Amino acid sequence: MTQKLRWGIMGCAQIATGSVMPAIQESETGVITAVASRGLEKSSAVAAEFSIGKAYGSYEELLADPDVDAVYIPLPNHLHCEWVIRAAEAGKHVLCEKPIALDSREAAEMVEACRKAGVHLAEAYMYRHHPRITELQEIIAGGEIGDLRSIRGTFTYNDATDTSNIRFNSAWGGGSLYDVGCYPLTAARLLFGAEPEAVTVQALFSPEHDNVDMMASGLVEFPGGRSLIFDCGMWAYNRQLLEVLGTDGRIEIPMPFNARFDDAEFFVYGSSGEPRHVEAFGANPYVQQADHFATAVFSGKPWIAAEDPVLNMKLIESCLESARKRERISLV
Fold it and tell me: Highest taxon of the source (predicted)?
C-alpha cells in the first residue's frame, strides 16, 4: 500500500480549488484531511465539495491538527512568509504557491525556519514537474542542439480591466514579474544549470493598477556569455513560448508553462532546418508536483535544492530593481 501524505489546505483560492486540490486527490501519495479559510462558511463549502472530513475557520486551527502532515499555502504573496514560518514551527511540511516571498530576505527566513524545524519546503512551480522538462534536459545534455547560447521566454496575458485583482496590489506582491515573469526566469536557471550574473529590465508601471509592473522585458546575463531574453505581462496579448538556442540547433516549446497532455509537444530544429516533432509524455503537472513533494518528504531527499527559492527571489527582486532604477543590476 502506498504511503499517504496527509494534506491541509490553507486557503480556498482558485488555484487551490481549481488545480492543486483535485491534483492531490488524484495523486498516488496524497490525501486531503482538512481545509481552512478565514471563515468557516467558505471552508465548509469547499470541504463538502471535495469530501474532506475537516473544515476550519482559521489557519491556526489547521496548523494545530495532528492529522495534518503538510500544508499547501495559496495565500496572497505578502502572507507567504508569515504562514510558512508558522507552519514550520507547527511541524508541518510546506508547499507554498509561487512566488514564495516578496524578496530574497523573506525567502531566506522561510528556508531557515523550515531547516530548523526539520520540515520540507517547496515552491509551487508546477511546470518543473512535468515529464517534458526531463526530456528537454536530456536533449540539451545529449548535444543535439550543440552548446547552449541563449534562451528566449515569453508569458503574457491581458487582465487589465479587472482592477480589483490582487495581482494589481503593490503592497501584496502584485505585478507581472511576480506573477508570470517568474516562469521564464526559473526556466532559464533550470535549463542553463547556472545562476545569473546581471539583469537589465524595462517595465511599464501603471498608475491605474497601483503602480505594479504590468509589462516587463529584459536581458538576464548568465556565465559564459549566455543569456535569457524575456518578456512578461498582464496587459498584453495572451501568449507563451520558450525557445532554447544552441550552436547547432534550437528547441521551440509552444506551451512551456502550463501544458498537460495534448499540448505537451515541442519541436527540435537541427542542421537540416526541418523540425523534429516531439510528442512529449503528457501528465498533469500538479499531480506530479504533489507526488514529488510527498516523495521528498518520505525519502528526506528534496526534489529541488533547498536554497532554490532564495535564488529565485534574488533574481526577481533584481529585475524589479533594474526596472525601477532603469539600470543594469549585478547579482554577483
Answer: Bacteria
